[in-house]
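Form 7-S
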Amino acid sequence: MSFPTDHQAVVIGLNAAIVAMIGDAPHVLAVRHVVPDPAKGVRPERDGLPFGPFEPFEHRTLEAGVRSWVKGQTGMEMGYAEQLYTFGDRGRHEVKAGEGPRVVSVGYLALVRAQDHPPAPDSHWRDWYGYFPWEDWRDARPAVIDEVIQPHLKAWAAGNAQRWERSRLCFAFDGLPWDEEKTLERYELLYEAGLVAEARQDGRATAQDTPAGLGKPMIFDHRRILATAIGRLRGKLKYRPVVFELMPAEFTLLELQRTVEAITGGLVHKQNFRRLVESGGLVEGTGRMSAPAKGRPAEKFRFRRDVLRERPAPGVKLTAARGRKS
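Output:
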């Protein structure tokens, strides 16, 4: 057995995409980072996810390590968390590949209730659609898709049928249906086409001047990690009741519907949604009523945890709706 030399060394990094509902939008907890650039001195500050290296003598497990870094950088205790993916592309943490140890990061997805966890001064809750503006279809098909993304992808795919077919499928061109779970595929397509700031940051040969309207960049590959988390959460809603990790102890069915719509980025049929949630045994009434500033009071519900023992996949299977919210 041979051991790696210095230039073959691998560092294990830990990242966390921490999601909470604030108002009517899903937010991610971002930390402002300054990344040294040997060629330019210091880069401007840029958002990133909480992260740090795995310390084998200090961290009993990978999850213990990421919880420790999150606590230290944001002051928060992570609640529900699951391992997301392992990210190991060469050059993730340096301008040129081979300038330092290879960094392999283990990403985590965590869901919290923001009001219970005010972040530290150097961390901030950010609307995740600020990083991915093409993902929010709640009001209408985002204009940035047809006005910015489509013409740039057409130019990039000119003469290459495979590139254009991928573009059509990812961004629902030519009347194709939108798949909300393809968040990562859409971001990676824009990265490959050189349209996002991270492609220029990483020195991609195809990188262009970043078009306006394509979201805020993040350090390293953190926007890719966040895209992975969004796609995972959107998919998991359908077979696990994870949405309730984002809800207060008591809520109205309208509040639950608005949370599901905010996460998926699309509308659902109101009556079908309520019938599905109630008949599926996901919630139970509390007998208490809400006190809205306007409109009629609505009954408050809570998550019925017994459903976890009754069914193997108690998720929220959605029926898409068209048009704007009333």
